[in-house]
Amino acid sequence: MASIRISGLHHRYEPDAAPVLEGVDLELGDGEAHAILGGSGAGKTTLLHLLAGLLHPSAGTIEFDGREVTGASPAERHVAQVFQFPVLYPALDVAGNLGFPLVNRGWSAAAVRRRVGEVAELLSIAALLTRKPKRLSLFEKQLTAIGRALVRPDVALVLLDEPLTAVEPAAKWRLRQALKAVQDELGLTMIYVTHDQTEALTFAERITLLHHGKVLQTGSPEALYQQPAHEAVARFIGSPGMNLVDGEVSAGSIRCNGQVLGTTAAADGRCLLGFRPEWAAVGDRGVPVTVRTTRALGTLSGVAAGLVTAELDGKVIHVQQRLDGLVGNQARLLVDPSRILLYRDGWLVNDATG
Question: Which of 228, 230, 271, 315 has the fewest Cβ atoms surrounding its Cβ within 10 A?
Fold first, then answer.
């Protein structure tokens, strides 16, 4: 496996076209499970193709274990890829598909059988080795495709391009668990590209959020959730995403609609106040809001609890709390003052002090 360093990566598909990637910097440790997360058009797949050597960047460098590979061919990089839709050879059984890369490299039949058996056991598909692809479920096909990517012991990097997109919803969790187990067992360097935050948050040690070709934040799942560095990260991570409402800082006080919500060391001026649904409550104290809907999601100490959707200055906000005590649609919003995040020009400037 390899450590990866990407420095100042830019890419345009045509010289006068809009940039797809702009100044991407990223470092991955050897054996790291990393996720590239972002919406459609963020540049995720382009970045994957640059790492694989299928594209060459307009500017910037890529290093594997300190060796520059920016202009190297895919074969020279020893990169394996798994795609959204598993591509298998229909004439070969599972064993033949798994062993194909080794046969191409001149391995002996005995060595191929041994390595194929090891990988099949690791992925729990040993019972499928004699089956042809047409007799496999989509889940089993994707496991086979993953096994083929892992079968070469010289693989430096495994790239996973939305590997769960085509898999049945009921099988997604199982496949994600299998991937994580393999990554842990073999210490593989893996980059998992997805638009699905659940997949990223539950698979990766660290996540990079791409937005319009730029890296907005790289960090642990907890860091992206608890302290998103940019408004776009705040909105993207979480279900629902972070609430962002208009506010201001005045003489060290955080204010919203004239109400003081907390204190901060940030400079005076207008800002957006960010808070997660579970960091706030709707009741009889705080900033006036209009409750639009409530949705029970379960119980807390025997009392219905769930999601409150309210409106504050024309903006929809969401709060997770107990649902008892809510009478009528006029209420007030109270936010934990130690959890308020402040954003200016899109970026986090300072968190509240309480």
Answer: 315
